[in-house]
Amino acid sequence: MLERTILIVKPDGVRRGLVGEVIRRIENKGLKITRLRMIYPSIECIEQLYDVHKGKPFYKDLIEFMSSGPIIAMIVEGDEAVKVVRNLIGSTDGREASPGTIRGDYALSIRENIVHAADSVERAEYEIKVVFSETCGDF
């Protein structure tokens, strides 16, 4: 089934020059990038993006980290795009992510794990609205 999802290269991935590598892997898998945006996100935008984690011990650090520099957000389309992208990026904890996945190959820690992707079609639509809104940030 044709789906769309969001994939974000986090500040650590942008700083380390891994944007091209992430895009290469998405395109090599046969997925289509239909929209791409580089922004310096506001704290409010990141709080909305990670609203499901509010109240958790790592929430404050996550918000600070994700608003610490520019991010690259993309809308990715393809057959079962959510599942395919999640498989491409690997487990959240880079120490547990399989080799060959983006996080398995490049993550430095559970926080600096290069990318973020939605975990469902519904969540993807919500996150796309948040990150691609005019109020999310500028660059």
Instruction: Tell how many strands the DSSP assignment holds.
Output: 5
Helix content: 25-40%
Q: Beta-strand level of the residues, as a percent range?
A: 15-25%
Give the CATH class: Alpha Beta
Count of DSSP H/I helices: 7
Describe the structure.
With 139 residues, the protein is of the alpha+beta class. The chain has a single domain, classed as Alpha-Beta Plaits (2-Layer Sandwich), CATH 3.30.70.141. The protein is built from seven helices and five strands. It has a five-stranded antiparallel beta sheet, with helices on both faces. α3 (43-49) packs antiparallel against α7. The longest helix has 11 residues, at 121-131. The mean pLDDT is 96.
